[in-house]
Amino acid sequence: ARKVIIDCDPGIDDALALMLAIASPELEILGITVVCGNVPAETGAKNALKVLEWMGRPDIPVYLGEEKPLVRVYVDARDTHGEDGLGESGYPEAEGIKPRRGAVSFLTETLRKNEKVSVIALGPLTNIARVIQDAPECMAGLDEFVSMGGSYKSNGNCSPVAEYNYWCDPHAAGEVYEAFHALPWLKGKKIHMIGLDVTRKIVLTPNILEYIKCIDRNMGERIEKITRFYFDFHWKQESVIGCVINDPLAVAYFIERSLCSGFDCYTAVETEGISMGQSISDAYGFWKKDPNSHVLTGTDALGFMKFFLHRVANADES
Ligand code: BDR
Ligand code: CA
């Protein structure tokens, strides 16, 4: 199994991504690091622990990370994910497991000790930027890096051009992309950017939910409870029947490359002004800079859904 750390801000779709990761034998999850994003880090960590309890994996450590973006004032996404970050589903806190302190040192030490650790980042990149600021040389231990964030040709979801994770901490996103361009320890490595172009195609519909309930009632009811708020948000905001679940696609893509397709190029993130948080991918090489990203633009949405249902609800893969 491949060693991974999942950096996240649970968050409804982060919770679904954690379920998928835990249900995937290809992954050895060394730890879950939480960052402020959808909800404050402490709330996000509680939610990660709930997922571990549901999935029967209380042994996976959860670490509290940064409580504020690097520079910008912190803006959460409780309007989308509910006050508790899990769609106001009212699930009790996990019993007997607590988050640990020090997400940034956990990431740093783990990358330092190992040769091949991958990071799947599902929230703002504040923790990762801090690791790079404190100990850039530990990046030599990084195998692959997948980030759910940004948008290539799709609109934003926080401004006309910016996606939430990069908009919430644009400076962190900017620094991480720049590190993949400039740091000697990251030479040749690329950020796999799973942006809104691909994740917007991943829609959990009422029909799929009913199907999950038919094959696994417990799991289906849990997913229904945590996504109801998200369904309502999508209906009010975008007149969509169903909800876009961004983060699980990053996990699925890490395991199964054929689920998304894209191209290599140089990407930067704007930190100021009206386009703050926008990811700008130089697809035609105007800037003559070596690629620091692999930007995913196409996805097999049905293939993803089968992959997700098979693992999370034990559905037949065909
Ligand atoms: C991203 O922002 C968050 O609200 C979601 O969890 C996802 O990571 C989508 O823009
Ligand atoms: Ca997230």
* Backbone CA Rg: 18 Å
How many H/I helical runs? 12
The SS-based structural class is: alpha/beta
- Report how far the terminal alpha carbons are from each other: 24 Å
Give the overall average pLDDT. 96
Low-confidence stretches: none
Bound molecules: beta-D-ribofuranose, calcium ion
The amount of helix comes to 25-40%
Q: For the largest beta sheet, what order do the strands appear in spatially?
A: 3-2-1-4-5-6-11-9-10
What string, H for helix and E for strand, traces the elements in order?
A: EHEHEHHEHEHHEHEHHEHEEEH
Largest sheet: 9 strands, mixed
How many E strands? 11
InterPro entries: Inosine/uridine_hydrolase_dom (IPR001910), IUNH (IPR023186), Ribo_hydro-like (IPR036452)
Domain Inosine/uridine-preferring nucleoside hydrolase: 4-305
Protein name: Purine nucleosidase
Organism: Murimonas intestini
Describe the structure.
The chain is of the alpha/beta class and 318 residues long. It is 39% helix and 19% strand. The chain has 12 helices and 11 strands. It has helices spanning 12-22, 41-54, 78-81, 103-113, 126-134, 164-168, 170-182, 196-199, 206-215, 217-238, 247-255, 301-312; strands at 2-8, 27-34, 62-64, 117-121, 142-148, 191-194, 203-204, 243-244, 260-269, 279-282, 293-299. The strands form 2 sheets. A 9-stranded mixed sheet has the order 3-2-1-4-5-6-11-9-10, sandwiched between helices. Strand 1, helix 1 (12-22) and strand 2 form a beta-alpha-beta unit. Helix 1 (12-22) packs parallel to helix 2, helix 1 (12-22) packs parallel to helix 11 and helix 9 (206-215) packs antiparallel against helix 10. The chain is globular, with a radius of gyration of 18 Å. 53% of the residues are buried.
